[in-house]
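[Q] Does anyone have a clean C-alpha cell version of this?
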Amino acid sequence: MLRTEKVLQLRGSQGRSVRVVREHYLRPDVPCGSALCRSACPRVGKLLSDDVTHYIVPDWKVVQDYLEILEFPELRGIVFMQTACQAVQHQRGRRQYNKLRNLLKDARHDCVMFFNEFHLLSYLPRDRGEPLEKWQTRSIYNASVWYYNHFLGHMPIVMVTEDEESIQLLGSETEGVFVISFKNYLDNFWPDLKAAHELFDSIVQSRRERESESQENNGKEYAEHVAVEALEAGIKSGRYIQGVLNVNKHRAQVEAFVRLQGASNKETDLKTDVLIYGTKARNRAIHGDVVAVELLPKNEWKGRTAALCENEMEDKTSGEVHCEPMPTGKVVGIIQKNWRDYVVTFPSQEESQSHGKNVQKILVTPWDYRIPKIRISTQQAEALQDFRVIVRIGSWESTSLYPNGHFVRVLGRIGDLEGEIQTILVENSISVSPFSEAQMCEMPVVVPEKPWKVAPEEEQKRIDLRDTHLVFSIDPKGCEDVDDALSVRLLPGGNLELGVHIADVTQFVAANSYTDIEARARATTYYLADRRYDMLPAVLSANVCSLLGNVDRYAVSVIWELDPTSYDIKKVRYDRTIIRSSYKLFYEAAQALLEGDLSAADEIPELKELGEKARKQKLSELVWAIRKLTDLARHLRAKRDSCGALELEGVEVRVQLDDKKNIDDLIPRQPLEVHETIAECMILANHWVAKKIQEAFPHQALLRQHPPPRQEFFSELLECAKAKGFSIDTRSNKALADSLDKAVDPSDPLVNKLLRSMATQAMSNALYFSTGSCPEEEFSHYGLALDKYTHFTSPIRRYADIIVHRLLLAATLKEDKGGTREHLLANKELVELCRHINSRNKAAQHAQKQSTELFQCMYFKDKYPEREEHGRADGIIYSIRANGVLVFVPRYGIKGAAYMKTKEGQVLSCQSDGTCEWKPGSLQRFPSRIISTPTVGEAVTLSLFDHVTVKVCVQSSRCHADRIRLQIINCKPFKTSEIELSQDSHVSRADLVREVTKTVEEAQHAHDTARTMKIEEGYEEYRQTQGLSLYQLLEEIKDLALLDISVDSRA
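[A] Here you go.
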C-alpha cells in the first residue's frame, strides 16, 4: 500500500473556499469487477459479463448528461469510474447520485464501479494548475487503458466523451482503447435502438434551447435565488426558514405550503406551515423541493382559500373567500431539488412555436396538478397527442415562465387501463421490473415433482412445533403471501400459551445478496386495486415462505406463557421454529365460527376430507382456539384502551372483479371482530420484539414511532363535533379516545364514524427510525399507546420486518455462527435506510389510493353512464365550504365535493319534495351550516351531518386522472339499503361486545378453562342456545337489542 496526499478545495460554512490536504492510500488489489478477469482480483458483488463485444467507459460529462440512456438494459458492460461518479455527486446533487448508485446496485443492469483513484496503477495525480474537468477526463482515460491491459487485450474498451479535444488527442493513442463521442457510439454500435436515439436528441435539443434562451432573453420572470452560502447563513441566523414545499393539488396555481424542518426553526415563533401564495412567490420551486423561505411583513399575510375549486389551471383569484391570515412568505432559494420522472400529456391542438425545420417547442401538461407545465422540444408532438409520456426536467431559468425538460419514453395510450396503471407507478417512483436472473439463481428450486422440504440440519437447530401445537392463519380470502400464524393452548400446569409465528424470510434472503438488495430498493409489496407487485420473488412470497396449510415451514416464533384468568404475561421466549399450519382460514369463515355458525366449516378445505367424528373433534378444537384468542384480544385491547389507544376510522374500499377482470362492485370494508383479534396479537408481538431489540441494540434498533399530532390539525374535528354538541379533548391520546367514545349520536352511527375519520386525518404519519437517532422519550407510538413498537410480523411484504428479524435473531441467538451481528447496520446506515423505507411506504399508500380511485371512476363510467338516471346514493355532509360542501358516501366509501353554486352564479334550490334544481341566488356560509337563497323560492339550509341524496358522476380529463364528482339531487336522505344496515350493525357490534363481556369475563375464563376439547353429544342435543358458549348466548341477546334499537330509531 502506498501513501500519498490529495488536495481538495472545499467550501466552508461561511462560503469561503478552503484548501484541505488529505492522506490518500493506493493499493494494488482493488477488484476490477469483471468475470473476464484472470488475475487475482477479489470476486465480490456484481461482476461484468464476459460475453460482450466491448466494455464502455463513460466520461464524467456523459454520466452527468446522459445517465437516462446509460440506464437502458440493452447497454451492457458499462464501467463507471470512481472519478465520474464523484463528479456526479459533487456537481449534480444527491438525487442524481442516488440514481447512479441504484443503477450500480441493480442486478438487472450489467454495470460496475471501478475505484480508479485507489488503485496503485490507475491513479493519476492532478498537475498543478490543471483544470478539474481536464484532469477528470485524463484520469478516466488512464483508468480505461489500465482496464484494457489488465485483461491482456482480450476486451476492447470504448471511452465515450463529449470533449472534442480529448477525442482528437486520445482517440488513437492506445491500441484497443477507442475514444469517441457518445452520439458516434450510439450511431455505430446501436443504430437500431430507436428509443435511445430519440432520448439523446431530446436531451441535446433541450440543452440547446436552454443555452439560446439564456442568451436571448434578458428579462427576468423570477427573482434570482440567493447563493447557497448566504442561504445557509440565513437559516442559521433565523432570517430564512427551511422546509419542504407542498403544493395544494386543489389550488395548484395559487396555494403552496412549506412545512418547517430543521433545528433552526425551533428558535422561531412559528407553529404552523408557511403559506406561499402564487407562482411568483414560489420562485421556480417544484412540489417536494427543500426550500428556504423568507417571511413577508404581517400586513401582507394571507389565509387559506375556503372555497371548493375545480383544479383550475388559470390563476383565478377574484371573489375568493379566505380564512384567517397565516404566516406567508416567498421562496428565496432551493436547497435540494427533488425532481423526478413526470408523466405528461401533449396538447390536443398545437400551441407551439416552431424552432428549426422539424422541431417544435411544446408546453406539456403534467398528470400531477401540483407540477407546472413543462416546455420540451420534440419532433413527435402530433404523433404523441393520444399518449401518456414521461419527461424529465433539466432546468428552470429565471428568464423562463416554465421549466425546460426533455422527452424520455412513451407509457401508453390515454384511458387504457395498463397505461393508467403505469402512470400511477411512475408518478410514485415505483419500479417493478421483473426479478433478474441473478436474483432467481439465489432462490430454492421448487417444482411439483420435488416440493420444498425441511433440511435435516435445520431440524437439529430449530424447535419443532409440528406435532405439539395447533397452528392456523386467518387472512383475507385468496391471500397467497401468508406472513403470520397463531397458536393457543392450555399448558399442563394450567397456564395459557399464546404463540405468534412469523415466516422466517431471512433464512432464504441473506444480507447483501442480490435478492436482499432488490428487496431493500422496493422496501414493500405494492398493493393496487387489481394486482400486487411483490417485494420478493413469488417462489418465496407465495410458496416457500408463505405459511400455507398442511405444509412444513420455517418460522420465527414469539411465545408467551400467560395467567389463564388475568392473562398477565409470566414469561416470553423467541425461537426459530418449524411449524405446520393446520388451517388457512379467511376472515369471514373465522368470524362465522366465532359466532357459532358451524356451516362455515364447509368452506375450510382442511376439514372436508375428514370423517364425521374426526371432523367434529377438529372443528371443536379450532372453535375453542378462535374464541380463546378473541377473548385474549379483548383483554389486550382493553389494557391499551386504558392507556389511551385510539380507535380510528379510515375509508377502505375493495374493488370486486369478476372472472374476466371486469369491475363487478365496490365494497366498503366491513369491520369484523376477528380483524381486531388478529391485529391485537400482531401488535403484542411487535411490541415485545421492539422491547427486545432495543434492549440488545440501544443505538441501532429499527423501531416505529407515531408522534403526537399538531393541535392545529384538530380544528376541523373540533368544529364539527361542536356542531353536534360534543366536546373533543385533544390534549392527549387518552383524552381524545375517551371523548371520541362519548361523541355518539344514537340516531346516526355514521356521526361517530366521521368524527373518528377526521381524527385519523389529523394524525401525524407513523415512521420508522433508528434508536440511535433520537432520545428514548420520542420512541412512543401515540395511536397504539405503547412506549416501544416496531414491525416484525410481515417480512414477506415489508423490508423493515426483515431488518427487525435480523436484529431479533442477533439479540437472541446464543452462538452467532452465521455472522448475524456482522451484517447489522450501524446507526448512520439505518437512519438512511429508514428514510428510504418511509418514502417507499408513502408511495405505496398513494399508489393504492390512486388505483382505487381509478377503478371507482371506471366502475361508475361502466355502470352508470351519464345518460342514465343511476348512481344515486345516500351522503352525509362532513365539511362546509364557501361554495359547497364535502360529502361522504358510505355505500361506496367515497369522499367528494358537492357544489352549491355554479360559476355562473346559480345556487342550489330545493322543491317541496326535496328535489334540487339550479336558480339564480346567493350563498351564506356559517361554521356549521350553509344557506342557499334563490331569488325565487325558499331558502335551503344544509348543516353538518345532514343526510342528502347525491348522484355519483365522473369528471373526465385528458391530461389528468378522472375524478369522482358528487351532485346533490335531493335534500332528503336516500333510502337506506340492506348493505348499509348490516354495516351499521357491524360498527356497533364491537362496542356492544366489549361492554357485555366485561360483566362475565371471569365466568367466561373459568368456563373455557374447565371445558373439554370435545363438544359432548348430549350437550349438542339438549343445549338451549344455538351457539357453543355463554359468549354466543350474549351474542343472541345483543342481536335482539340491536333490532329494538334500529326499530326505535326509524320511528
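[Q] Thanks! Anything notable?
[A] Residues 190 and 196 are 8 Å apart (CA to CA).
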